Amino acid sequence: MGQFSFSKQERLYRKKQIEELFQKGSSFYLNPFKIIFWLAPGSTGVNQLLISVSKKNFKKATDRNTIRRRIREAYRLNKRELEPAQNLSIAYIYTAREIQPSSFIHEKMIASLKKIKGKCIAAN
RNA sequence: AAAGCAAACCGGCUUAUCGCGCUGACGAAUACCGUUAGCGAGGAAAGUCCGGGCAACACAGGGCACCGUACUUCCUAACGGGAAGGGGCUGACUUUUAAAUGUUAGCCACAGACAGCGCCACAGAAAAUAAACUACCUCAACUUGGUUGAGGAAAAGGUGAAAAGGUGGGGUAAGAGCCCACCGGGCUGGCGGUGACGCCAGCCGCACGGCAAGCCUUACGGGUUGAAAGGCCAAAUAGGCUUCACUUCGAAAGACACAGUGGCUCGCUGUGUGCGCAAGCAGGUGAAGUUGGGUAGGCUGCUCGAUUCUGACGGCAACGUCAGAACCAGAUAAAUGAUAAGCAUCCCGAUGUAAAAUUCGGGAAACAGAACCCGGCUUACAGGUUUGCUUUUUUU
RNA sequence: GGCUCCGUAGUACAAUGGAUAGUAUUUCAGAUUCCGAUUCUGAAGAUGCAGGUUCGAUUCCUGCCGGGGCUA
User: Fold this and answer.
1) pLDDT of res. A1
2) A24-75: pLDDT as tens digits
3) For strand B, is any atom closer than 7 Å to the CB of A106?
4) Closest by alpha carbon to A49, among A99, A77, A59, A31?
5) Any idea of the CA torsion for A70, A80, A107, A115, to the nearest 10 degrees?
6) Interacting residues of A88 by C-beta distance below 8 A, sequence separation 6+
7) Strand B closer than 7 Å to the CB of A84?
8) Residue A85: pLDDT band by 50, 70, 90 thresholds?
9) A14 CB-to-strand B distance under 7 Å
10) I want to staple A89 with a disulfide (CB 3.0 to 4.6 A). Which of A21, A24, A55, A121 is the partner?
11) Are A43 and A80 in contact (CB under 8 A)?
12) Which bases in strand B are touched by protein, i.e. have an atom under 7 Å from a CB?
């Protein structure tokens, strides 16, 4: 698996897993995101990501697409912050009301990933 | 040349780095992995307003009801869409005292109001089977500036969206299509046109409005549900009941009727009858149906099609026929991207000039994201190209 | 995805196609009071948008815009 790849394995798409994440996971806010994460027992060696942009805040499908793509690129290029990969499920919920530039999202993504890693180590 | 309107078309490009989806090839290799090649959002993908394909279910035939459409002919798989034509309305030009005719541009949900019902506020004498009232004219009586009665006729009446054919003349006691001319209208016939309709001739003096985007009438069309349709597999769970067939047990029977509950069926409860000495009147397997429970994962449907491009021919056109070439998204918590740089377009400032070109810096670049697939319609849209029309200015 | 209903003052509701769109409440001003509340008087405030039918649309028709409900 490549260093910057983002294949289907790394996406969170199963309904059961999503429900599990939202029920058991812990969350924190880091502008412009709300982040929910959960470290499942056992290790598959792959972290899984879910990106959500509310239809209530962005009526147009194009706007939602651009935000989702920017967040995805930010995660893809910076995911090595979480090394070594474990069985982590993360949900990024975009809470800002306007479309933020890529540089801003990248910056916040790095900060949030570091925070997640710190919390996981503390829990263990 | 500029501005406006209408129609048609286009809707940025290139490179680098890192990525995503599908398909093919290769690597021990049909599913995972790697390498590599190809392809990968729109003119509206949108709204979901129409129409069709496709699928499942339903269906003798006819009628009623309900919904939709509405000048004619054609195009089409079909349409509420499109093309051509007809008619009407509005504006301009020509002509003219003015109209009509003619030319041209734009617009029109443009069937039926002597099949029926309903509505037409306010104002007004009257708002729809024509006329109560005022005023007009004639005669009579009383009387003399008038009043009353009888009759005539339907012209005049500050309204109103709409007033009962219009204008002019004759006629009369006063009037009236009462009569005449022109215009308008209706009916009949002929001719032309596939048809809507048009033209011509003759006849009728011709009271009877508007609204069907009020009910309605006529003609035509419409079965219902939608890809979360439908088919297959995996996983998981808990079976129950009914019917039928076979079988086991048994000597045989292994049932029947009525009532209650209930919308109905099954069922449950009760009573009676039958079989059996009595207990008791069953068990199992399979198929179909039904109810309940479970599963929310994969494959298929799924993208080659009323397809796209080019050319020829037919048609006024919409469009059709033929020939050749091409393969052009198939995602599913949902791919088609992110970042950086450059080019082209436009704007602003500077440089420069008679005006430009050039160069430098900065900025802008829309509407918008496939979800089974097509044909339309509607709505949104920076900027650009072409064509046509109108207006203004300049030059010859 | 499909089906269906509804948009009227700030709010909750009315209004056969027919005078200036009505009622309650809210807001503002005045009166009453020593000051408030209550009460009384007056005022302000609306048909979602754009077309069409009609002499005349809140009402009828068409197209947009916005909101709700049902279905799985």
Assistant:
1) 44
2) 788 888 888 888 888 876 666 778 888 888 777 777 888 888 888 888 888 8
3) no
4) A77
5) 120
6) A37, A38, A39, A40, A47, A48, A82, A116, A120
7) no
8) low
9) yes
10) A21
11) no
12) 18-21, 33-34, 41, 296-297, 332-340, 368-370
Q: CA–C1' span, A21 to B9, in Å?
A: 53
Structure tokens at A57: 């805040």
What is the b/e burial string over A16-46, where b = at least 16 CB atoms within 10 angstroms of the residue's CB? eebeebeeebeeeeeebbebbbbbbeeeeee
Q: Write out the two tokens for A88.
A: 């982590």
Alpha helices in A14-60 (DSSP H): 15-24
Quick one: pLDDT at residue A2?
A: 56
Task: Go through the domains of chain A in sequence order and give each one's CATH number.
Answer: 8-123 (3.30.230.10)
**A94-123 tens-digit pLDDT:** 888 778 888 888 888 888 888 888 888 887
